[in-house]
Every structure is written in structure tokens, then in C-alpha cells.
Amino acid sequence: MSGNQNYINHVALVLDASSSMSHLSRKVVEVADQQIEYLARRSRELDQETRVTVYAFADKVECVIYDKDVLRMPSLKQLYRVGGMTALLAAALKSQSELAQTAQLYGDHSFLTFILTDGQENASHRCPDSPTKNARELVNSVSEMISTQGDNWTLAVLVPDQMGKREAMNCGFPKENIAIWDATSTQGLEEAGQVIQEATEKFMIGRTKGIRGSRAVFSTGADAVNKDTIKAAGLKPVDPSAYHLVPVGRDAAIREWVTESGHTYRTGCAFYQLSKSEKVQARKQIAVLEKKTDRVYTGPEARALLGLPDVEVRIKPDHNDDFTIFVQSTSVNRKLVSQTQLLIMN
Fold it and tell me: What is the pTM of this model?
């Protein structure tokens, strides 16, 4: 891509509009409108063009907005109506095959779709938009479609429970592109909106680094942090003389452990290993350690690699054989967890 070509994002929301969503329908509109507002703001700030498509699905799949400039989007208030069953697979197939017909001329185009559902597939076999009436063939069609999408396609789904997650995996959705949300409450839906926003931030920051698609939008694991993504994000290793790795032998306060290991404690010099779900503030730095080489990468790109926005956000450690995530501590009495590591910057 030549430098003067623009980034063009095609973001789609594919929303469950079956009867069981009726207690959440006002909240769905609010959360979707917030997401669109956020996309508009970030598109301006990052100088990326973003076009939004919205589908609603119940017994049939309806495209209510197609590839519209995010700066000119209406509210979904008049467009989202609930009633009927859940043609989830037909919605996945129709949204992706129609979006695939979008022209991709003159620019670096990338497609990001979020499907939000509160239940199990139960209507695609009789949905007019479905390519087949056979349930097995439907699953195979979705699986094949996902496996053949290009590197500039990202397809993610939010499901209500473990069973939904298993079904999504059976249909070929990448494991790290499946999130579970609490479909019983407006609070749960608000949190789902937060998850979508964080994943979108990660996607848009990734775009500025040349990453075109992701099979790990909800992850800090091996799919999100690996040699390729580190290279794509332009991360440079820190000079080895500038840091020390210290094993943590017991639960202890961070300042105490730094001084016990023979180092001087300065606020912000110590990074703890991410070992449980944590809230990370906007100003906190992130460091990434390559286990095999003990190389450390840090800087704003390290936050971008995990898709961390410029606001406080919760992240959780995912399984990663090759890399460890560290978070900067600015508190003197943060409790370190035994059997983890501490990273001290000179």
C-alpha cells in the first residue's frame, strides 16, 4: 500500500432481535449508539475512515444500515425491532457474504464484525436468507466461510454462556474471538458494549501499525501477543542493561521486595506480572517479556498490542507459552503474588 492511501474500516454490528431480547431492546439501541459515537470519535482522532453496517436478525436477517459513513449515522432507535426466533448462522453467512461484495478499491480496507446473541441458533434452517435447510450443512458453511476469509477480515461473536461458546467454536469461530456476556441484565449488556469497544480500539490501533485483521480480538494470549504481532506493532527490545527480572518467592509488598532484592525503589520503576484479572489505568505502562530470550518490549506500542484504550480498562491474563505481560505499579504496597516475576527498570 502506498503511503497516501487511506485506512478504510468496515465495521458491522449483527444484533440478535429475537423475542428474548425484548427486555433489553432499549439498552441494545443505547449501547449500539454509544459504540457508533465512539467509532466516530476515534476515526477522527486516528484519521481513519470508518463505514458502519448494522444487521438485525430473528426469523430473518435484515440489513438496516449498509456501509454508511460513521460520521453520518442515525440512531438505531427507529431501526431495531424485536420479535421471533434466532437465525444466528444465517445472520453470520448473510452479513459476511454481503460485506464481501463491498468494493475494496484505492485504500487499505479492513472488515470487523461483531455478532451479539442472547441464545442458541434455532431458526436458520427455515430462514429465507439461509443457503440450506440442513442444520449440519449450515454449520459447515459458516465454518468454511470463516476459514477462507482473507487476512483483513475479523469476525467476533458474543454469546450468553459456555454452551454458546462451544457452539460458536463448532462453527469455526476462532476461540479468542468469542466472548461470553451476561444476557440477563442491562448491566451485562453494558459490559458487553465495553468489551466490544475495547476490541474495536485494539483493532483500530492495530490498523495504524499495519495489522489488518485479528483472530484474537478478546485476548492477551498467544494469538494477540506473538513474534508476528510484536514485529507488526514496531516494538523494539529494551537494552538488557536497563532492567532486571526478579523471581518473587513469597506474597510481599512491591517496595519491600524491590529493596530486598538490592534495588532502589522509585515510583513506577517496578512492573508486576499480570496473574489475575486487573484494572489497568490509562497512564500505566505495559511491558512484554519473551520467555525464551528474556527480551523485554515496552512503550506505547505495547499497550496498543493489547488493544488498551486511553481509559481505565480491565484486562485478564490468557494462556501464552512464549510471552509474559507485566503492568507498571505506582503503588508502594501492591501485593506481589508468590511464584511470579517482578520486572525492575533502572
Answer: 0.73
Report whether 79 contacts 71 (CB < 8 A): no
| Nearest CA-CA partner of 79 in 52, 113, 55, 115 | 55
The answer to whether domain 7-208 has CATH 2.60.40.4070 is: no
Contact 219, 156 (CB under 8 A): no
Angular region, 84: left φ>0, alpha ψ -120 to 50, beta rest: left
* One-letter-per-residue 3-state SS of the chain: CCCCCCEEEEEEEEEECCHHHHHHHHHHHHHHHHHHHHHHHHHHHHCCEEEEEEEEECCCEEEEEEEEEHHHCCCCCCCCCCCCCCCHHHHHHHHHHHHCCCCCCCCEEEEEEEEECCCCCCCHHHCCCCCCCCHHHHHHHHHHHHHHCCCCEEEEEEECCHHHHHHHHHCCCCHHHEEECCCCCHHHHHHHHHHHHHHHHHHHHHHHCCCCCCCCCCCCCCCCCCHHHHHHCCCCECCHHHEEEEECCCCEEHHHHHHHCCCCCCCCCEEEECCCCEEECCCCCEEEEECCCCEEEECHHHHHHCCCCCCCEEECCCCCCCEEEEEECCCCCCEECCCCEEEEEC
**Which residue bears the cell 449450515?**
138
What span, in angstroms and rounded, lies between the C-alpha atoms of 230 and 118? Answer: 35
Residues of the chain with CATH 3.40.50.410: 7-208
* Total residue count of the chain as it appears in this document: 346
Distance (Å) of CA 103 to CA 3, 50, 99:
20, 14, 9
Q: Could you give the CA distance from residue 38 to residue 19 in angstroms, rounded to a whole number?
A: 28
Neighbouring CB atoms inside 10 A of 122's CB total 14
Beta strands across the sheet bearing 108-116: 61-69, 49-57, 7-16, 108-116, 153-159, 178-180
Instruction: State the 10-residue block means of pLDDT for the chain, 346 residues long.
Output: 71 98 96 96 93 98 98 96 97 98 94 96 93 92 95 95 94 92 94 89 83 74 76 85 95 95 95 89 90 90 74 77 92 92 95
